Amino acid sequence: MITSKDNEQIKFIQKLQTKKHRDLTQSFMIYGEHVIQEAIKQGFELDIYTTNPDHPGTQITESLMKLVSLTETPMMDLAIVKKKEASPYTNRILMLDDVQDPGNLGTLIRSAVGFGFTTIIASNNSADFYNDKTIRATQGNLFYANLIRTDLKSEIESLKKDGYTIFATALHQKAIDIKSIQVPEKAVLVLGNEGAGVSKEILDLSDYCVFIKTKDIESLNVAMAGSIIMYEWQV
To answer: What stretches of 115-199 show up as alpha helix (H) in DSSP?
Structure first.
C-alpha cells in the first residue's frame, strides 16, 4: 500500500492534473469504476490505484486519494491511462474550431460517439480532450472516439482531397437549413467557438454553411446544436 504523498507514483498522478504533463507523457487520469471498465473494454493501457482492498490495482490510503482527486467527493478508484495512436478516419467527422468549455467538449464527444461521428478533430486552441471535466462529461464515451488535435486549415485541405464535404455552422443569410441538406457519404461538421462561432478563415474553406431553424431564439449552445445536427445526419 502507498501511504506517503512523497511517493513517486503519487507525484506523477498529481502532475497529470496539468495539460503540459499529459501531453509530455501521453497519459491522462480517470476516476471511478465505470469509466475504468470502459477503458479496459476498449483495450487502453492503464495502471489502477484504489482505496478498496477488494478492487484490483495498487492500494493507496483514502487521504492520498483525496489529495489526487479533482472531484469534491473522491472515488475509490483512479487510473493512469496511456493515450492511443489515431485510427483511420470515419466517413462522418466532427471538427471543433476553438471550442473552449470542457463540459461542451465532453458532451459533444458523447453525442458524436452516439451518432456515428467517432472521428473528432479539434483545433489547437480548443479545450483539452483529457481535461477532467471533459472526461466526466463524456460518461466513458471518450474511449470509443478517435481524437485528433491539429491545425484545422491544413486538415480541411487534406480532407477535401480525400473526398470529404465540409459543412460549417453559421447564422448568415447564405446558410442552409440542416434539414435541406442531402448529406454525402463523407462529411465533416464544423462547430465553432462558444462566443465567436466558426472563424472566417474556416468558413471560407468550407463547402457549405448550415444552420438549425429555431423559434424566438437566435442560436443554441454549441453542444446542443452539434448534438442535434449529428442526430439528424447520422447514417
So the answer is: 132-138, 152-161
User: Which one, of 125, 121, 110, 109, lies nearest residue 148 by Cα?
Assistant: 121
Residue 53 carries which side chain, given as an amino acid letter?
P
CATH entry 3.40.1280.10 includes domain 92-233: yes
Containing 119, the helix (H) or strand (E) segment is strand 119-122
CATH says 8-82 is which class?
alpha beta
Nearest 5°: the CA angle 81, 48, 23 is 25
CA distance 60 to 82: 20
Q: Which of 156, 23, 146, 12 is nearest to 78 (CA)?
A: 12
Give pLDDT tens digits for 55-98.
Answer: 999 999 999 999 999 888 889 999 999 999 999 999 999 999 99
pTM: 0.94
CB atoms closer than 10 angstroms to residue 3: 11
Give residue limits of the domains in the chain: 8-82, 92-233
